[in-house]
């Protein structure tokens, strides 16, 4: 497989995975392209590479910047904006985990806490509902705490976590 085919296959595959991670395909494709680009890239280059509109590129770049995994780069003498992706995979994993927690786990915890606080003394269905939603709240809360612990480590967080678990 030649370079251009491999590059295209990576970008397309990363884009397809993006929808499973809760982001849109184009956002993931832009991220993939920036990850494998050795230098910062202009919006025009992104548009050309991915065959997308300026509005689509702009909106998705803004989202990636909000996630903290893409940055703007200003080059002296250039009027264009350039962009580059976080290259440190540990840092990337931490930022994605934090963002997904904020967008997915925290709202779920809020709902579970609210619905499990009902007064459930009247019927078996109510008692069962309260038991199950309390159990779900406790489970999701533990998962949230575990993710927080993992993302607290900035330097080689995975090996530190494993060392801590094994000692």
Automatic annotation (TrEMBL):
Presence of the UniProt keyword Nucleotide-binding in the record: no
Example GO biological process: regulation of DNA-templated transcription
Organism encoding this protein: Pustulibacterium marinum
Keyword rRNA-binding: no
Family assignment from sequence similarity: Belongs to the GbsR family.
GO terms of molecular function: DNA binding
Name of the molecule in the record: HTH-type transcriptional regulator
Lineage summary: Bacteria, Pseudomonadati, Bacteroidota, Flavobacteriia, Flavobacteriales
Keywords recorded for this protein, A-Z: DNA-binding, Transcription, Transcription regulation
